[in-house]
Structure formats: C-alpha cells, structure tokens
C-alpha cells in the first residue's frame, strides 16, 4: 500500500479539495483538475474497488555555488548565451572533471537536513545519451553509490480547507545524488535550427529522489514547498522554480487496494508548485478514466501543458533508453570524513568533515516554526504563514522587539495587513515601503491607546505611500488622536447635546 | 664508449658552453625532419613556432639563465596531446584541422622547461592500434628499414623496388614518436601508453620507452583512449634522458584528479655497480605463444647477465596474465565507446553536411570521421555496456583486472624488485606482412606482453637490447613497483650499459652530422 498516503482515492480527493496550506498560490487559483474531475468521475463507478493513487517525485535542485560542479566556470542566471563555458563544459577533447568542494558541502548539508545517512564513500558514473545540449554525450551522475541515502521529509497540509486542521505527513527520501546539469536547446522551427546555450551545462545539481509515499497533488505540492524552504534556509539552492533552480518530475500510478502498483507515467515540464498539484491530480484522474474505460497505461513520459491544464505524451522521449552506465574513470571515489574517521595529519582544506557541517546547520523551517509558536504564543498555522514568505518571520520578530504590543496581536497586523498589502502589490518583504520600525511605531501608538484601531489602519494606509512621514506626524496631521482629557470630552459632549436641544 | 651518456652531459653541456646554439640545434632537427620525410613520422611540423622558441632559449643562454637541462632541447609530441595553436588531429578525419585552445599539462611543462616543440607525431587513429599503420595520414616507416644494419642483413631480393616493400613498421601506436627519436630528428618525444603504445614502438625502433606509474603524470590534455589505463609515455635515446623527462613531467596536477597528491622529487640516476642485492623476477606466463626463439634466447641471456653479476633471478608466476587480453578488450572498448561520444560534430571537429535531422547529422559525422577500427571498438564497447550485458562483461572484466593487479602485488611482496620480460613477440614486421591481419587481431597479439602493466598501473620500460638476425632492434621490458620509478630506471640504466645497443647507421643522419647528432657520445641529451 502507499505508505504515508491518505489511503484510498476518495480520501485523496478530500485532501485535494482542501485548501493547500502552506499554499504557494492565492485563493481561487487552486488545483481545479482534482476537484472538478474528481467529483465528476466517482472512483469505482462500475462497482470496482476504489483507486489508490501513488505519487513519487524526482526533484532536481540547482546547487547555489559560484562555479560549476566540475569546472571553474561561473554560474549565473540569464547571462548572455555561451558566455559561461569552460573547455570542459564544451567537452573539448582531453579535458577532465575536477570536483567542486562547495557542491559537495551543499549536498552534505541537504542530506543531513533531510535526515539522510551520508555515504562516506560515493562514486560517480557516466550516463550516456546523445543530445545537442549534452556536449560530452554523457552526464556525470551518481548512479551506483550516491552521496546521501535513506532520509525523510516531514511536511504539513491542511484538511478540508480548514486552516486549523493541519496534518503532518512524512515522505521517505530514497537518495540524493550529485550530477551535472545539461545545456539548453532552443528550437527555431521556422528556420529549422536548434540553438544551443551551454551556460547551464555542467552546473551542479542535487537530485532528490522521493519514494512514492504521496497520493495527490496537494501532498506533492506541500512536500516540494517544504523542501524548497529547507534548501533556501540551508542556502544549498536558491530553489526558485521560475528560474529552473528547482525542477520537479512526478511519477504517477494508480492501483486497487491489495493489488500491486500500476504502470507509472512520468510527468515533466512542471514549472511551479501550483502546476505540480494540477499536473499530478490531472494525471491521476486521466489514468483512472483510462483504466475504467478498459484502456491501459503506458510507461511513458508526459509533459504538463500549463495552458491546457493537462498532460500530453512527450514525442522525443519515445522508446526505452539504455543509458549504458559506466563508472567515471577520471574521478576517484568521493571520500567524506567524520570526527572519528578524520585522519590527524590531514589538511583541513582538503577534506570534508560531515560532523563539522552538521554542527553548523542553521535552524530548519520546522524548528523555526516551533520556536515561533513557543516563544510568541502564536498559532501553528501562523508560524507556517510567517515562514512561507521570505523574510517575514524576521520582520515579525523585529516588530515584536520594538513594541509593547503582544506578539499574538502583532501577528494579525503582519499577516492580515502587511502580507495582504505586499501580495496585492507583488512585493517581497524586503521591498515593503513600511519598515518594521515604522510598523512598530504605529502599533505602539495603538497599544498606548493614543489612536484607535481604525485610525491605525488609516495611518497605515498613509504609510504605504512611503512619503517618509512618521506615524505620529500622520496622526497629528489628520487629527486622529484619541481624546484622553475628560474635561475636553465633557465639553464636546455638552456641545453636541446643546446643539440638539429640540430632539 | 660512453655512447648513451645523455642530454645532461652532452647536448646540454654543449649548449651551456656555446658550442652549439638552440637555434642551430633546432634548424638541424628541422632539416633532418625534411630529409627523413619519407618516414612519415610527423603529422605537423611547427617550424615557425619552434624557431621562435629556440630564439627565446638562445636569449636565456646568452643571459646565462637557462631554465635547466631541457632548455633549447628539440622535442616532438604525439598528435593526441593538445597543443595550443598547433593542429591536434589524433590521425583522424574527425579532428583534422582542429586547433586546440590549450596545452596539455605535459606539453606546458616541457615548454616551461624551455624545450623546443618541433611538431606533432603520427599514430594510429586515436591511438587505437599497434603498428602506427591505421591513421588517416598513412603508416609510419621504421627508420631501421633504411639503416645499414638492416640493409646488410636483409637478403637482397632483386632490385630497388624491393626496398619499397621491405620496409618494416614502427609498432604503435606511438610509432611517429619512436621513429622521430630513433632517426635523431628530436632528442625526446612524448607518446601515450594504454596497452603498450609507448613500449612497443620503442622496442621496434630501438629507443627507450617509459610508461610511468598511473597517476604520476597528468593526463590533462591527452585525448583519452582508456582513461583508467592511459599514461603519457616518454621516448628517449637513453635511460638517463627518460629520467630527465620524468623529472620535468611528474607530479600532482590540479586539473587531473587521478594524479597523486604527494610531491615528486626529480632524481638523477646513480651508476649502479653492485646488483647483488637485486631480485629479478622472470614471469613464466610471458613465455607466450608466438614468442620468437630469438627473443626468448635474448631474454634468457639477459637473465643470465643479472645472475652472473650476482643478482638473484627467480621464476615467478602471474597466473591471471592469460585473461589479460580479453579483459583489456572489454574495458578498453567500453571506455572508448564512452569517450568517443563527444565527437558529434557540434562543438568541434568534423561535421557532416547532412542536414535532415540532428540524429542523421550525428550518424553521418561519426561515419565519416572515424575509421573502421574506431567504429568497431565503439560498437563492441556499447554492446558491453548495455544493461543486460554490463554484469556479464564489464563488471567481470573489472574483477579480472583486480586479480591481474593482485598477481603483481603478490610477486612484489614476495621480495622481487623488478620483473624482466620481453617487450614484443618478435622484431618489427614488414608492412606488407603486417597488414595481412586486421587491427584487432594484431593488437591482441602485440599488446600481450605489455598491457598487464597498464591493468595494474605499474611503471614499465623498454630498453633496446640487441639487433635481431635481420638487423632490427629488439628490446626487453622491466616492470617495477608502483611509484618506484627511480629503482626501475636505475636497473634499466645498468642493463643498458651492459648491452651496448648499437647506434642506428642512417644515410640521412650522416649527411647532417657535425658531431651533435650521430656521434655516439652525443646521441642523447642528458
């Protein structure tokens, strides 16, 4: 059975119908395929047992590093074509790979963060296929003994669209392997040409292989989102999907309970987390329909078409490839050490010490969330929201430090006012026109009861304009102060009463 | 008497004392290359850059600041090493006209030591062969074919046309480098050695051919045949010169992760007088079928030489030797299939005009660019790497390779210092005879005595020993312990001194002679 999965398809559909949390996409743009189609085609309509979908993921994360995995070329997004290509990257005859230490450290960090055991000896292999953007005719990867194995990743998602009902699930990590990225081919159909850009060729990748422990698009999306946060926290990858730094392929199959797994398809071309949920749910539904209509599922590679919201067979991946794997003879085994195995006379520049890296791991998102909940008394779902936005938790903590207002109250201002404003204007936290200092200032006025809550909102609206005024200045300008003087209040009241004597 | 005193005491001394200038030396070599053009030893002669380098060297000597023994010494490099600005072809249509943007580490090191690069030498296409007969630029002719020694012995069949059919091969695949050193057109040359490609032609051409320990010399810039066995090879006129070259080439290269980390200390070879503490192993498995009686006799004589000088000579066994060739065949073709995948016509090298599709273009490019030998090895290599065959062939061959390497470890552990074996089964075959058999059969036969050292990564050297009945050179091979080049070369030097191998008598060399080339004392540079 699908381990860690919600169980059968009707439950999967429930989960699919739930609001993804921590969701990367705004309300209203959710994975429709799962909902609509899932509802329209009840599982087991011909009296058959329900279907169990099985989803596994292969994720390629580009390592954040100044230079490539085996050469000194720079790594940079959107540089002029073929401007970052060394002799080795272009596979000039006689060139040899030289392993980049930074890439190894990034993979070790990631492996440790994903609870993997790190192999003290791992090996490199050549994987052969002919493609225009693979100059050597093979990719150097880790097929036999990868750098990290047997890990796990916990992620949370909410049930039935209720933020308060969050469940935590775990997906097993089969392995993490180091490998080279390929270049990019651009097909110019009108001129019948293929243009090749080798800037990306040879950039270091970590391939994270997740076991098929998920059962729907929402789970896959939540798992990837959590992985993304972890990578960004570690700094081992920038993991920006839009820039191709995080690429997800989904393996999808369906079967009846008690039966072996069905034939799986591989879905590629997924370039956002939102599309991942859509693509997986579409593919599950397509397979069920196909099977219930008496069809069969082919072991094929399919591409997700984000415009049509469906998956289509990929033409150039027809037929089975034999990659003719072979050990990479130009790289000795990659040896890592821990405190125990570290030889005393070894030059520290030349060795990588797993324990040393372990001790220096930053707090992972799950730990950060726990700390936020514990320290500030906020709700768990608030901690998810804080970590979901880069820099938001830090902003929150900074505001808390500068005000007398209780964190529980501050969180509302952060999530409801600041965050929604930023979203509306597509701004990052760093780009916020209101600094944590200004917001704290404002909240202090509120906390000291110098202004009312609605006045505070008015001031905030003024602050967004970014005109350099302090909250106090705005309050004064617009006369938004609350009156504290009893005599003055009495006078005003008297004046009002006096003016309405006849009523 | 001191016929092979070498670079250090001869040419280098002459340069230092101003008896000859680097430019004169270079010009004489260039002239000799021209008059021995019929040997087809060089693919490219870099006359202009060589003269420029000689000029620079001359300035250094004039300032009294030469860079060392190699400064101003003309050398040649096998055409499978990258040389910036000078064509690198691998004797293949695939790379004809290819000019590399960088120097191989070994080439750079030679230039940094002041050596003058005369040109690039001929080989079998991509170093796949044992005759130097299978390159697009035609076969290399063994200089000894034109020596007085050979002419005297060979039965004159009738007329001059027979001379045309009588010429013998150089062996290979570094035949161009061996012929270049043998005909005195350069003082030393680089070859490469994957299964014997340096030692085999060295034996046939009567020169010293050293295959150092795997990992001692950088392979960066050497266009690979079998990465796990390839080693840059050194071809010189005497053992001392091989030590000089080794000293300038060996050591860690950050660009080649398979080179050893430890520093290499260049050494001068002592003159061994006492061999009584030596233990020489004679591996019985090297009594291979096809070994000529002449060579067998020479081998025994050499063993006796050591014995009579007081060394311990013991018969040893390397039981897995017999599997070596077939195992080598699997590993070699598999790596060839992989290494050749990059030649697709996109980034560099030959590109076919076929424009129907990228796949068709690949296929046509590779068909036009590679000869039958290369294509055949790619095909079998890919077969061995198929998923269903991988365990059966590749993994098994790797295991056998380990057994072969362990054979050597055991023998050396038993107290043997050096192994003594023949280098080739017989002296060089006439070209017409040699091409009767296909490349694969020939390679399998010819590599039989040399490639086990590549499987085990051990240092091995061919020392020219005597002339055969036909007046052709015959060499013997010494195999040493890993990274024990000094011991290996010291023993080889002692042996070299005992056997007094004759100097080639060539008409062309005599014509250019003025004491630096042909005079026995000046035959080499150290």
UniProtKB/TrEMBL annotation, chain A:
Catalytic activity reported: L-glutamyl-tRNA(Gln) + L-glutamine + ATP + H2O = L-glutaminyl-tRNA(Gln) + L-glutamate + ADP + phosphate + H(+)
Gene Ontology terms for molecular function: ATP binding; glutaminyl-tRNA synthase (glutamine-hydrolyzing) activity
Family: Belongs to the GatB/GatE family. GatB subfamily.
HAMAP family: GatB
Single GO cellular component term: glutamyl-tRNA(Gln) amidotransferase complex
Domain of life of the native organism: Eukaryota
Name assigned to this protein: GATB amidotransferase
Species the sequence originates in: Helopsaltes ochotensis
Domain Asn/Gln amidotransferase: start-end pairs: 394-503
Assigned keywords, A-Z: ATP-binding, Ligase, Nucleotide-binding, Protein biosynthesis
One Pfam family named in its UniProt record: GatB_N
Signal peptide: none
From TrEMBL, chain B:
Domain Amidase: 28-146, 169-489
InterPro entries per UniProt: Amidase, Amidase_dom, AS_sf, GatA
Keyword ATP-binding attributed: yes
Gene Ontology CC, one term: glutamyl-tRNA(Gln) amidotransferase complex
Gene3D superfamilies: Amidase signature (AS) domain
One GO molecular-function entry: glutaminyl-tRNA synthase (glutamine-hydrolyzing) activity
GO biological process, one term: glutaminyl-tRNAGln biosynthesis via transamidation
Keywords: ATP-binding, Ligase, Mitochondrion, Nucleotide-binding, Protein biosynthesis
SUPFAM superfamilies on file: Amidase signature (AS) enzymes (SSF75304)
HAMAP family: GatA
Protein name as catalogued: GATA amidotransferase
Species in which this protein is naturally found: Helopsaltes ochotensis (Middendorff's grasshopper-warbler)
Primary gene name: Qrsl1
